[in-house]
Amino acid sequence: MSKKAYSQQEREQIGEKLLKVSVEMLSRKGLKETKLQDILQAVGISKPFFYGSYYSSLAELVVAALHEQRTLLLKEAEKNAQKGAKEQIQSFLSTVTFNREGRFFIMTQQEELWTHRNLSQADFEKFQQSQEHFFGQLLQIWNIPPEKCSPKELLNLILSVLLIHNSAAQSLPFFFEEELEKTAQTQIEALSAYLAGLIKTEQ
Length: 203
What we know:
The protein has 203 residues and is mainly α. It contains 9 helices and no strands.
């Protein structure tokens, strides 16, 4: 049986489906439980076609999926624009921290380490640049001047909350697991108040 020849439009549609399915599976199951073959089977393509047409590794696909979901994250940040500054920021941080609905793929410490190990240095640096751009967009949505909080600082502040909440039970044994949710709530409250205090006000 001859292999199917895909048109350029079909290839683009498959690429879009590949990212959509990846975000859905990663957010629901996590990286450890998500196998490349499961994604490809759901999309309906083979490994040779995947490697020859899209990405050279699962790690590259994971990074692409993270980039894809940023549009959803920005919409989430904009969704509560009618609320007060602190409430808007706090709502966003709570949504991405207590990701109960499986809407977003937020990596654990182990998942970050695995992805970093399996990316080339050039791809990692490119990803970090895109991270900086994304967090700069968050600052714009929240009307926080970058001279008061840089995108890199915002990334560190938010990821410190997410990583402790998502990773402590597996990799930080000195934390009390039963208090992690309350700890994250306290951190979110404090971080939201801090960031709201940086917001530029009209003169």
